[in-house]
Amino acid sequence: MLLDQFRDPTVVKGLAQVAVASLLAVVVLGLSYVRHLDLETELGRAFVRGFVQVIAMGAVIGVLFSVRLAWSGLVLTAMIGIAAWISKDRGAGVPAVFRVSLVGIAFGAGIVIVTMIAAGAIEATVQNLIPVGGMIIANAMKTNSLALDRFKGEVESNRAEIEAVLALGVPPRKVISDYVTTSVRASLIPMVDSLKSLGVVYIPGMMSGMILAGANPIYAAEYQFVIMAMLFAAGGLTSMTSVMLVGQYAFTDAEQLKLFEERTADGRKAP
């Protein structure tokens, strides 16, 4: 069954399209090298990794379409765990960053998926749960990464001020509240901009795909907005949960700010 998917003529056609798209990506890598941006290694690895992962996921989903619904729950759980593991790198050095990411993504994405299944917006089938659930989890991961990265930067940049205010006896939660707010707002900027431009500048692929498949354009637009609202809700709940948890873990029992370990790009402790 798995090999039959790769024998499909459309897969061969798709590889040719991948080659063309990859050439455009190579141009970006070349410009990075010429401009000494030092991004070509990370970008190249991410590009190859993304291709391998998405092809593998496509093959797995093709097999999962023929199995029982319960398997989709296991797949989504695995996706949440992997998303938390990837997202933690953006907050590398932050206390309990993996635990925070796992709880935040599971909470934000989980609530949205369960609620929208109950509302009928996501059909309780493998064919719908895994692709749509994956989109929600991925967006929650991206928002979580942005929130952690911003929070870490805010704390490191304002460490002296935070410690001075703590020394005056101000509760840690109050001291950190402004940085929590700033981090959550920053993490939601891409999603807010997407909503502002929806239908004017940004015409999402799902809406286009539904229209090309013969769906009513108005319904396609409505369902696309539902998807965007789900992504926004999942991202918002995730970033708020993660940053608030990090804010708690950032202090010792004596209400002192913990040291944020310096980490390299791959998440290892800096020498």
UniProtKB/TrEMBL annotation:
<dbReference type="GO" id="GO:0005886">
    <property type="term" value="C:plasma membrane"/>
</dbReference>
<feature type="transmembrane region" description="Helical">
    <location>
        <begin position="71"/>
        <end position="88"/>
    </location>
</feature>
<feature type="transmembrane region" description="Helical">
    <location>
        <begin position="200"/>
        <end position="219"/>
    </location>
</feature>
<feature type="transmembrane region" description="Helical">
    <location>
        <begin position="100"/>
        <end position="122"/>
    </location>
</feature>
<feature type="transmembrane region" description="Helical">
    <location>
        <begin position="15"/>
        <end position="34"/>
    </location>
</feature>
<keyword id="KW-1133">Transmembrane helix</keyword>
<feature type="transmembrane region" description="Helical">
    <location>
        <begin position="46"/>
        <end position="65"/>
    </location>
</feature>
<keyword id="KW-0472">Membrane</keyword>
<feature type="transmembrane region" description="Helical">
    <location>
        <begin position="226"/>
        <end position="251"/>
    </location>
</feature>
<keyword id="KW-0812">Transmembrane</keyword>
<dbReference type="Pfam" id="PF03649">
    <property type="entry name" value="UPF0014"/>
</dbReference>
<dbReference type="InterPro" id="IPR005226">
    <property type="entry name" value="UPF0014_fam"/>
</dbReference>
<comment type="similarity">
    <text>Belongs to the UPF0014 family.</text>
</comment>
<protein>
    <submittedName>
        <fullName>ABC transporter permease</fullName>
    </submittedName>
</protein>
